[in-house]
Amino acid sequence: MDTVAKSGFRSFLERKDIIFSWKRYAIDAMSAMAQGLFASLLIGTIISTLGSQLHIEILSTVGAYAMKAAGPAMAVSIGYALNAPALVLFTLAGVGVAANEFGGAGGPLAVLIIAIVATELGKAVSKETKIDILVTPFVTILSGVALSALIAPAIGNAAFSVGKAIMWATELQPLLMGIIVSVIVGIALTLPISSAAICAALSLTGLAGGAAVAGCCANMVGFAVMSYKENKIGGLISQGLGTSMLQMGNIVRNPKIWIPPIIASAITGPIATCLFHLEMNGEPIASGMGTCGLVGPIGVWTGWLKTGTGITGFDWLGLVLISIVLPAIISYLVCSFMRKKNWIKENDLKLDL
To answer: What is the signed CA dihedral for 252, 238, 347, 245, rounded to 10 degrees?
Structure first.
């Protein structure tokens, strides 16, 4: 009887496309959530900043509306990644509002966890009754809001504490933590997971945020420059302003190609924290975006504006060196050495563009 019941339950989950896996929840859902964040909070921040600097009120208004949609955008993006039916997908907008608000500083992490649960519960009951139009959204929104009230504050506090610990450690040991944070976040940016979502969930700002920016820029600019031989201008733009994740297939085939950007991040991270004292005081998600749409450098710039301290030529020099110049030079030199040693071979960095 137990075997029959288990078999029936597995068949039910398969029919409902409910798959309990690390890839689906930690990679697919988180990557989609990052897109939701970018399409709301990040683009809103960019537009709002342009509006305030250019004194164009309509841009500031548009940006503010986009930023307010972060919770719903994240939740719907997660539901989309989990193949949620229409009624579940649309209802997740309310779940996102609740989870993001209850989650506070750790709102993105709360949205990730709660939206996954609400989505799978909604999928489980979808089209199982004759009153699906009532049951499916009812289960989705009730479970999502109830979970938000019950666990989102704790998730937010935990994420905030971890982020604070990282930022405290970076203030205490800027050299060591500058290396660690830069390398780890840079690697996360290139992996099929979301460095932006991680930084947002941990509210990673300050010196630690500056180190994260350095690591992300090192990977994006590094891969863009060192693969110019194979990919020309298309590869330079798609990786330098898009994402270094495009190289993941090549990294699997030859992991050595990742060495130059990692070395670059290990060098630029502590330079950012110890020499230029580069801080991210803009939106935490910008710490994990690198040069994607220039969001990382723009985040540092908006942070300067937010703190109200005078921006010096040394500040601009540090930002340009850390974001573009040093990653390009270091990655190119290390890659050239590795090409001569035949550790990186012809077309190892080739993209199908």
So the answer is: -10
Handedness of CA 139, 141, 144, 148 (dihedral sign): negative
Cα atoms found within 13 Å of the Cα of residue 49, Cβ hemisphere only: 19
Q: What is the pLDDT of residues 129-164, one digit of tens each?
A: 999 999 999 999 999 999 999 999 998 888 778 778
Q: Per the structure block, which two tokens stand in for 181?
A: 């944070």
Q: What would the two tokens of residue 49 be? A: 């900043």
pLDDT tens-place string over residues 236-265: 998 998 888 888 888 988 999 999 999 999
Please state, in angstroms and rounded to a whole number, the distance separating the CA atoms of residues 148 and 146.
5
First to last CA, the chain: 54
Cα dihedral 240, 245, 249, 252 sign: positive
3-state secondary structure of 350: coil
The DSSP letter of residue 273 is: I
Cβ atoms of 208 and 181 closer than 8 Å: yes
User: Torsions phi, psi of 225, nearest 5?
Assistant: -75, -45
Length of the chain: 353
Q: Which residue has the higher pLDDT, 171 or 45?
A: 171
Residue 149 in 3-state DSSP?
A: helix
What are the DSSP calls for 39-102, one per residue? IIIIHHHHHHHHHHHHT-HHHHHHHHHHHHTHHHHHHHHHHHHTT--HHHHHHHHHHHHHHHHH
Residue at token pair 């982020």: 163
Q: How many CB atoms within 10 Å of residue 249? A: 11
Q: What is the DSSP string of 181-214?
A: HHHHHHHHHHTTS-HHHHHHHTT--HHHHHHHHH
